[in-house]
Amino acid sequence: MKICRFKDKQNEIRIGWVTDxxxxxxxxxxxxxxxxxxLESEDPxxxxxxxxxxxxxxxxxxxxxxxxxxxxxxxxxxxxxxLRSKTARMEESNFSASAYDRVYEAERPxxxxxxxxxxxxxxxxxxxxxxxARWSVPEPxxxxxxxxxxxxxxxxxxxxxxxxxxxxxxLLYLPQAKTYHRSxxxxxxxxxxxxxxxxxxxxxxxxxxRNGARAFAGxxxxxxxxxxxxxxxxxxFRCQVFxxxxxxxxxxxxxxxxxxxxxxxxEVIITISGIGRLKNPVVVV
Length: 285
Ligand code: DO4
Ligand code: MG
Fold this sequence. Notes:
This protein is an alpha+beta fold. The protein has helices at about 35-40, 45-50, 85-90, 95-105, 165-170, 175-180, 195-200, 230-235; strands at about 1-5, 15-20, 25, 60, 65, 75-80, 110-115, 125-130, 135, 140-145, 150-160, 160-165, 185-190, 205-210, 215-220, 245-250, 265-270, 275-285. Strands 1, 2, 3, 4, 5, 6, 7, 10, 11, 13 and 16 form an 11-stranded mixed beta sheet that branches. Strands 8-18-17-14-15 form a 5-stranded mixed beta sheet, with no helix packed on it. Strand 1 (about 1-5) and strand 2 form a beta hairpin. Helix 3 (about 85-90) runs antiparallel to helix 4. The longest helix is centred in the first third of the chain and has 10 residues, at about 85-90. The relative contact order is 0.20. 2,5-dioxopentanoic acid (DO4) binds near residues 77, 85, 89 and 139.
């Protein structure tokens, strides 16, 4: 089951239940005006099933503006969770190579702050590459939607935009490489009710388009993530509170070749088989 945030024709923010590729049901008529109460319920999928779909207005997806599926949650990200990511980071950095090697094997994962909710980029809106970076890439990642009790209640698609040259120069520059204007996109909606065993069978696909031609394509599987989802969420919630819940990106397993860097006007398309597609053009910030 898929739920989204959207703006209607009157520019009002609403919650939608996406029923097929072309339409959603407006949940306002069922008294649902925010995602948070649904995500905080014991079982959001079961709560949705109790709603009478026939009583809800049906709206074409082409008539709405999708918003990032995040309200008051901080967005965090795990790193070096795929073998491919560890290898790539070690190649980009002579200086800090052993740090990646160690964190891949260590009990404690790498987790870093990624974005305030109000800064998250919506589907279709531009993601940013830094004007002071030479080597910029998208990182297509499965994102866990976690409620305030630390329970994983849904999944969405995340793009952890990154400046590889800045990170590679010195690991202490990680916050600048990872957290800047337009560096995090989420969407197009949240899938609820999928157990981890099923989510691990999903594929993640990345395409980057430039001047009408495909400049890069790559694929991985969620099953390649080395750590369990509850393990990652558990570390995020250690000695920390998230009164509105949190979003946790789970790391990237697709890394374009070293010769590739994003450019303005590229289009980044991330598809996760069980969720949908997140598309964003690129701008320099
Ligand atoms: O250690 C740097 C960041 C790693 C990351 O973002 C990833 O593996 O996805
Ligand atoms: Mg990442």
